[in-house]
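Human: I would love a firmer grasp of how sequence relates to backbone shape in proteins. Take your time, and here it is.
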Amino acid sequence: MRETKSAILVTGAAGFIGSHLVDALIEKDFLVIGVDNLITGQLVNIKHLMNSPRFLFIEGRVEDLKFDQLESYKIKAIAHLASPASPVDFERIPEAIISVNTLGTHRLLKIAKEFSSRFLFASTSEVYGDPLVHPQPEGYWGNVNPQGSRSVYDEAKRLGETYVALYHRKYHLDTRIVRIFNTYGPRMRLNDGRVITNFIQAVLRNKPLPIYGDGKQTRSFCYVDDLVKGLIKMLLQDGLDGETINLGNDEEISINELAVTLETILNQKLERRYLPLPHKDDPKRRRPVLTKARKLLHYQPTVELIEGLKRTLRYFEK
């Protein structure tokens, strides 16, 4: 009789955050099945895993994943991280973003139900939209324009959460939702349109730093290693059935201050170029309330922004 191996399914496995999560799970001796259609994921992020006996890669859309592709395994848990998430993707591939977060989430929930798997959905701080409450606790319902250019991501994630909550209520599936705030680090796409990669790209090419708007808008940046520690706890820790938890870093900084921080690291003055905001619904302030994460996960980000930026710069310089 063939042995059924216990595995964890990770979607978006070749993506920025997903590939780091796969690494962390394999380091803990889990067998990981990674799924990615490579629309924004990059094979280089998982190249080092391709010969590992603890990693199986399936190239394809989450929406098309078949039960018989997995039936020889016991799927212990599913971590659904598959989704284009960068501002440049909102205009380029909006249908794919909507599909993977809605139809893809529903497909995976059906698979989780078949296997009685634990299910972790990677949501986003974007569900809070341009928030009228600051900082943002999990109980805040958000301020989202359902027809704005960002809504293909914001509203798709909100509907993904709705599907997850439905399966928790109706089928008593062990589900967990994490709302991820701005995360950065190695394996980001250099042309993904996010502020940190925009700044690094400008530095490497000796161009002015592009700053959209007046630069007074704020973000809270979390280094990827800190985020993954929270994801691991959220995925593996018992007693979190049905929980929704913010993950990120609650140190808030303006875009102008981020530019100054980069100047400090490089020990040089950097020219700025101020540009119009690309999205009228761009959040003015963003900072997570991490009370639940600290209480339930004993979560605490430890990598300071200066150190994280140095590591990220070194990665892209290579």
User: Anything to note?
Assistant: The chain has nine helices and 13 strands. The mean pLDDT is 96. The CA atoms of residues 15 and 41 lie 4 Å apart.
